[in-house]
Structure formats: structure tokens, C-alpha cells
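Q: Please design a sequence for this.
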């Protein structure tokens, strides 16, 4: 939609071919329905948040920055607000307002949108020595020709929104290399059975560390969630894109510090105070003030201390073990969940074969790429949509130039 708007503003005649009955199905579910549509950090921070091929993004981010995105939506009647972590949302908190703003502008500019139209094939022809875009064919045998085609078909995650990886298939047919696609920003599967017992438990303000043997691969602070298969929540979703490739080769250790605000000494003092208050109670009744109910039996099991032991007979060594479990609650990460739970798809059209300035294919004249179909991805925070906006803008500018 954004590419369509920019190309139409440049005087192009634009047709959007959309397989769904409406546009922006994925956009609708972004940011838990609030659409975190960009991030208000400075350019350097945006580039740091892009994990794959940040350099490829220099030019398009310069052409259409996060501030340009906010400016455009404001102009289109969808003002924004900035929240924690510089995340930008529509002031209304409704993703539908982002979609509505784009659709109104498409309509105003006369961009034609063909719904329920699935592109099946992309055809080219030779002009001299040069392979050029000619026609797309839909499943119901309609043909659409033009000077340029922008492939903005998304990735493979949440296929019900329409992103079923068709763009990778078209790009491959056109001679492009596709860097291995895999789920990104996705929950983890953990080995330990006790995860199931913790299902639904959400922890705020925990510190996590992910280790490959002795080597620390990732650390973060924030929120996490236990699920029936493992762990999820913002800190772990972000971690998945950093450690996912190593995890595909071997299991990794996750350590959760359940009390990151307390040093081991401070935690010991706190435990001693709690023990003092319930010295005649059993161990299993002494941790209520310190830990969420669901965690208590698991922590006790991991300490190896008899749950019925009287608190006043717990030894220093046993207390040390308790502190160690609370500061380093252990889990073994064995794999990532699948595309249906992945916020993004990593991998995609190899950017070496795409012009970073115009997003035009270096192999086929008149073919452009935008958004998640490209091998570019970022952590959470509005950066992935920024990648989609910037590349769509650059592609539209490039496609418009063909016409001139
Ligand atoms: C649950 C969830 C929450 C997210 N939240 C955020 C967030 O808050 N902030 C953020 O920055 N990112 C977020 N993302 C990621 C973000 O939504 C994507 O990176 C972004 O939508 C990619 O845009 P795109 O235009 O490349 O692809 P898409 O948004 O997937 O759009 C591709 C479009 O192409 C159409 N299409 C595909 N194939 C064909 C075909 N053969 N013929 C015709 N049409 C076709 C599809 O129907 C679809 O409409 C979230 C993703 C998910 C799944």
C-alpha cells in the first residue's frame, strides 16, 4: 500500500494485487492490535536493531526514515504517540487506523486494488540482452502487465494473514538466491518437564542469560512467560533472533535471575528475615513472600531440600543452594517454535542481488522487492515495519523512475 501511494504520487498508474479479501491482514494484528509501526530512536540505534544486513538498509532509511513515516501518517490523519523503548503507535491504539489511513490515500490517488487476486506466475521477456519484467498471471488466469512489479509478498509467518512465501518462489524462478528461511522472533521449546507446570506464569523484571557452554550469547532484562512447551514473552522473543542459528545446531542453557535487583548477599539477608518470621514452619511454606506460588515447588525440587524440613533446621549450605537456584533458575532450550508463532521470517531474497538504493533486482529489470520478502530483519520495537516502509518507499521511487 505504501509503495502504491508513493508511486501514484509520482504519477504512476498503480494496481495492487492482493490475495485476501482485504488489505493489511497482518498489519491488523501487529503490536497486539495496536500496531507498533516504527521506532522513534535515532538512525544509529535503528541500524543497531537491524540484525541481518543493516548496511543494505542505509540508503532506503535515508530516503524514508522513521521520522518520515511518523510525518506521513500524521499527514494521513493517523497521528502517533511514543511509548517505552521509543516504540511508536497510532494515538488511537488501533492498528485499523494505520490501515485506514493507507487505504484512504490509495483511494484518493486512484490506486486500483484487486482483492481476492492471487499472483501465481511472474513472466519476463528479453529486451536485447536484458531480462525485463513483462506480466503477472493470477490463479484465475488474469494477466497484468506494466513497466515495473514490486514484490511485497511478506514472509512465511502467520500464513493465515496471506504471507505464504509466494515471493520467495517467484524470486527463485527469476534466478534469485534465497537465503535459508526460518522463523524469527519466536518462542522457545524447553526440555524440562516442569515448564508445563509453570504454564501461564508471567514474570516481570527478571534478568535472562543464554549460554552456549560457557559462552554467554545473550542477556536481557524484562518480561517473560512460561508456556506448555517452554518460554516466551518479550525478552525471549527478542533473544530468539540472536541465538536461533546456534540453537539449530545444539541445545543452549537459559538462566533466569528471579531476583535481579538483589545481590546474593542481599537475597540471603531477605531469606533469613523470611525464615525468622516462619521458623517453625516447613520449608515449602516459607517462600510465599519471595516467589510466585507456581514457582515454589519447582524451586524446592531444584534445591534438593526436603520440602517438609523445618525452616529453623535449614543449613547454610542449603540456603546457598536456594540462592543459587533463585539467581540462576535453569532451563535447557532445545528448539524454536514454528512459523505460526513467529513474528517474522528470517532469511529471504539475497540482498546481494538487489540494489539497496532502488530495491530493483540486479537480475531482472523492472522487478523490485520490498518488506519481509528480503533477507533483512530486526528485533522487536517497530523496526520490522520500518524496514517494510523504507524498502517500499525506495522500491516505489525506483519503479517510478523506470516510467520516466
Ligand atoms: C503477530 C505479529 C505481530 C507483529 N507486530 C509487529 C509490530 O508491532 N511492529 C513491527 O514492526 N512489526 C511487527 N510484526 C512484523 C510485521 O508485521 C511484518 O514484518 C510486516 O507486516 C511485513 O510487511 P510486508 O508488507 O513485507 O508483508 P505482509 O504484511 O505479510 O504483507 C504481504 C501481503 O502480500 C499478500 N500476498 C502474498 N502473496 C501473494 C500473492 N501470491 N498474490 C497476491 N497477494 C499476495 C498477502 O496477502 C499480504 O497482504 C508483527 C508480525 C506478527 C505476525
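A: Design:
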Amino acid at each position: 500500500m505504501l509503495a502504491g501511494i508513493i508511486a501514484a504520487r509520482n504519477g504512476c498508474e498503480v494496481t495492487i494485487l492482493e490475495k485476501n479479501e482485504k488489505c493489511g491482514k497482518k498489519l491488523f494484528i501487529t503490536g497486539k492490535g495496536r500496531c507498533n509501526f516504527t521506532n522513534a530512536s535515532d538512525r544509529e540505534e535503528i541500524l543497531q536493531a537491524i540484525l541481518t544486513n543493516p548496511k543494505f538498509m542505509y540508503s532506503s532509511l535515508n530516503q524514508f526514515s522513521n521520522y518520515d513515516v511518523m510525518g506521513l501518517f500524521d499527514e494521513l490523519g493517523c497521528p502517533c504517540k511514543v511509548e517505552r523503548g521509543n516504540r511508536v503507535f497510532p494515538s488511537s491504539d488501533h492498528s485499523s487506523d494505520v490501515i485506514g489511513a493507507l487505504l484512504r490515500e490509495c483511494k484518493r490517488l486512484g490506486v486500483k486494488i484487486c482483492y481476492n487476486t492471487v499472483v501465481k506466475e511472474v513472466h519476463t521477456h528479453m529486451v536485447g540482452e536484458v531480462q525485463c519484467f513483462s506480466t503477472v498471471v493470477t490463479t484465475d488466469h488474469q494477466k497484468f502487465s506494466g513497466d515495473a512489479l514490486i514484490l511485497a509478498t511478506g514472509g512465511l509467518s502467520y500464513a493465515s494473514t496471506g504471507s505464504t512465501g509466494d515471493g520467495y518462489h517467484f524470486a527463485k524462478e527469476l534466478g534469485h538466491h534465497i537465503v535459508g528461511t526460518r522463523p524469527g522472533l519466536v518462542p522457545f521449546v524447553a526440555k524440562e518437564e516442569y515448564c508445563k507446570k509453570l504454564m501461564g506464569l508471567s514474570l516481570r523484571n527478571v534478568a535472562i542469560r543464554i549460554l552456549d557452554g560457557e559462552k554467554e550469547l545473550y542477556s536481557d532484562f524484562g518480561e517473560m512467560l512460561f508456556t506448555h512447551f517452554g518460554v516466551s514473552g518479550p525478552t525471549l522473543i527478542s533473544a530468539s533472533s540472536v541465538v536461533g542459528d546456534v540453537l539449530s545446531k545444539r541445545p543452549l542453557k537459559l538462566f533466569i535471575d528471579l531476583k535481579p535487583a538483589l545481590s546474593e548477599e542481599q537475597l540471603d539477608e531477605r531469606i533469613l528475615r523470611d525464615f525468622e518470621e516462619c521458623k517453625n514452619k516447613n520449608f515449602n511454606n516459607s517462600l510465599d513472600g519471595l516467589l510466585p506460588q507456581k514457582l515454589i515447588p519447582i524451586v524446592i525440587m531444584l534445591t534438593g531440600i526436603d520440602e517438609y524440613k523445618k525452616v529453623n533446621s535449614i543449613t547454610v549450605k542449603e540456603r546457598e543452594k536456594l540462592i543459587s537456584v533463585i539467581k540462576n533458575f535453569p532451563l535447557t532450550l532445545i528448539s524454536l517454535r514454528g512459523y505460526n508463532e513467529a513474528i517474522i521470517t528470517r532469511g529471504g531474497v539475497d540482498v546481494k542481488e538487489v540494489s539497496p538504493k532502488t530495491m530493483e533486482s540486479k537480475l531482472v529489470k523492472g522487478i523490485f522487492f520490498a518488506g519481509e520478502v528480503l533477507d533483512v530483519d530486526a528485533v522487536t520495537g517497530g523496526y520490522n515495519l520500518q524496514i517494510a516502509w523504507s524498502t517500499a518507499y525506495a522500491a516505489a521511487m525506483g519503479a517510478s523512475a523506470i516510467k520516466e
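Q: Thanks. Anything notable?
A: Residues 17-20, 25-27, 29-31, 35-36, 118-119, 152-154, 157-158, 162-163, 166, 343-344, 371-372, 382-385, 388 surround flavin-adenine dinucleotide (CB under 6 Å). The radius of gyration is 26 Å.
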